[in-house]
Amino acid sequence: MFRSSLTLRLTLAFTLLVAITSALVSVSLYRSLYAELVWRDNQTLVNRGAQLRQLLLDGAEPQALPLYFNRMMDTRLDVLRIDRPGRGTVVEVNQAGVAIPGMAPVPAGTPPSARLLHHWRTAHGEQVAGLALRGSDQVGDVTISVARVSTDRDRVLARYRQNSLIISLVAILLAGIASPLLIRRSLRAIATLSQQTARTDSRQLASPLALETLPAELLPLGQSLNVMRQRLAEDFSRLTQFADDLAHELRTPVNILLGQNQVMLQRPRSPAEYQALLGSNIEELEHLTRLIENILFLSRADHRNVALNPQRIDLARFIGDVADFLEPLAEERELRVEVSATGEVEADKLLLQRVLTNLMTNALRHAPEGDRILIRAEPVAHGVTITVANRGAPIDHPEKIFTRFWRGDDARHSPGTGLGLAMSQAIATLHRGQLGLSHENGWNRFTLWLPRS
Amino acid sequence: MKVLLIEDNDKTRQWLIKGLREAGITIDAVADGRDGLHLALEHDYGLIILDIMLPGMDGWQVLQTLRTAKATPVLCLTARDAVNDRVRGLELGADDYLVKPFSFAELLARVRALLRRHAVSTTTITIADLELDAVRHRVTRSGDSISLTPQEFSLLWFLASRAGEILPRTLLASEVWGINFDSETNVVDVAIRRLRRKIDDPYPLKLVETVRGMGYRLNQAGE
């Protein structure tokens, strides 16, 4: 599988950027240099033509002009010719051997300008600029032609082109070599972070990763990793605690089973004794079965792996049914169950039965004998609440009461697995609801809030 | 009607065979899914008890193949209480399921229910000197009219309609009160105690029997 490399991608991007930049810079500098050089050459030619015309007008001898001319310019590239109309060429300096085409001369008295220049190419392809001017000397009218071959300029430009190409290539090469090194260097922080993360095991979860050395860009990643570690550490310690508690819970029934069976086998017994033992064994095993079921349920609820089967539930009828079911328990303790319920809720009926049975069983167990328990269900904003209340002393550690295996002072003597309230709360959470406990005027009140579907 | 048991764990198979035979049920048992499927297709069983976690051909495959040819009732035994398993089992045509660890009383009650699926329903039951009338909700014992609450009547009716069978507490809670989970309370025992006070205590012949570790049974006359 091809895994795209960050270094490779960034290097390619940087190199491309350098290439484009140097190309743009070279081309634009070249163009302005070219324009500048052409402008200067043209200006020189125009000035020279004007000067020569003035010299002749001032009475200079045409034959004497090459003398000035030699001093003023480079005879290998510059051309000067003076013609007298009808009498041929008077003076010619043309070492370059440029053929001068017929140029319409600038009339006498008109100042020459670059716009009036003629441009053509020699047989070798070199560019030539030229200008013809009408003037006069002491003898009569003359035509002055000046021209210049651009060999020099072309050489300068060619050298410039070559240099810029070399410099650009060097820059691109440098970018190509240096970028990966620099990028790798910057990414070293990621490698460090990965190593630290890879080395993490349960014992180090609680200590956060060192963030001081991280560059600003990696700080959010480092912080998220630390938040994750923190959460995992909490979950992990909860899990460990749960496993400890579970082992402890299992120890009691297993100990009973082991002990009573061994004692029974010490000597022969009557069938009635064996039957009693088996009955007792079954009770312990049923307790263990419930424990297993409940723990599985809690573990699946933790991972939201419980498929809810929501249906419309008429609360008055639903609570009435559960109260009917538990009525024998109430009667046993001479308790009155007072139900006042209205409204509907959409919930998993079986799970809601569990919650209500659990809360009511608790209330029936803890209410003073001969008293009453109150069950109330009513619509509230965004949902419904079901409250189950019984008279009783405030519960110590109300925050711990929903913890798995937590039992109050009557501790190990109360029946059940010690998971009932934890399960009830898990079921409330699965329904995106809440279960809470409050104490008011001598009443302990469990309130289940469920959102309106 | 014969029952076919497909279960690979030797100990589990042994106690299931023993328990069901002693309850008067004729049973064939195999440890392998393929053999089980072969037998199931060959013979007409009244019920198949099928373990899902089988080596080789697993329970799902057995069930799926069986359903292409036969409609024999199937009771699935599964070790995992995952919801997906239940849904899958019911989709594939399982008639009932039990999650391990399950109680034998629970299994036996369900096996009997599945075997008797097409039993005719009656409106009156007579057991010894106890007479029940479902239409008028009337109970008499030795000619005395006994007044029961609706719940007590449902409980007694259920016990009587399956007289002679041991009925586990969870089944009673589910059938009589619609409470479909193990509620960790002794509410069924208390309800039975109240029922006994009305229909058993005043008479010399006790009909409602506690079977320790299993549940309750309404004894038929002469037992």
UniProtKB/TrEMBL annotation, chain B:
<dbReference type="GO" id="GO:0006355">
    <property type="term" value="P:regulation of DNA-templated transcription"/>
</dbReference>
<dbReference type="InterPro" id="IPR001789">
    <property type="entry name" value="Sig_transdc_resp-reg_receiver"/>
</dbReference>
<dbReference type="Pfam" id="PF00072">
    <property type="entry name" value="Response_reg"/>
</dbReference>
<dbReference type="GO" id="GO:0032993">
    <property type="term" value="C:protein-DNA complex"/>
</dbReference>
<feature type="DNA-binding region" description="OmpR/PhoB-type">
    <location>
        <begin position="122"/>
        <end position="220"/>
    </location>
</feature>
<keyword id="KW-0902">Two-component regulatory system</keyword>
<dbReference type="Pfam" id="PF00486">
    <property type="entry name" value="Trans_reg_C"/>
</dbReference>
<keyword id="KW-0805">Transcription regulation</keyword>
<feature type="modified residue" description="4-aspartylphosphate">
    <location>
        <position position="51"/>
    </location>
</feature>
<dbReference type="InterPro" id="IPR011006">
    <property type="entry name" value="CheY-like_superfamily"/>
</dbReference>
<keyword id="KW-0804">Transcription</keyword>
<dbReference type="InterPro" id="IPR006291">
    <property type="entry name" value="CusR-like"/>
</dbReference>
<dbReference type="InterPro" id="IPR039420">
    <property type="entry name" value="WalR-like"/>
</dbReference>
<keyword id="KW-0597">Phosphoprotein</keyword>
<feature type="domain" description="Response regulatory">
    <location>
        <begin position="2"/>
        <end position="115"/>
    </location>
</feature>
<feature type="domain" description="OmpR/PhoB-type">
    <location>
        <begin position="122"/>
        <end position="220"/>
    </location>
</feature>
<dbReference type="InterPro" id="IPR001867">
    <property type="entry name" value="OmpR/PhoB-type_DNA-bd"/>
</dbReference>
<dbReference type="GO" id="GO:0005829">
    <property type="term" value="C:cytosol"/>
</dbReference>
<dbReference type="GO" id="GO:0000156">
    <property type="term" value="F:phosphorelay response regulator activity"/>
</dbReference>
<dbReference type="GO" id="GO:0000976">
    <property type="term" value="F:transcription cis-regulatory region binding"/>
</dbReference>
<dbReference type="InterPro" id="IPR016032">
    <property type="entry name" value="Sig_transdc_resp-reg_C-effctor"/>
</dbReference>
<keyword id="KW-0238">DNA-binding</keyword>
<dbReference type="InterPro" id="IPR036388">
    <property type="entry name" value="WH-like_DNA-bd_sf"/>
</dbReference>
<protein>
    <submittedName>
        <fullName>DNA-binding response regulator</fullName>
    </submittedName>
</protein>
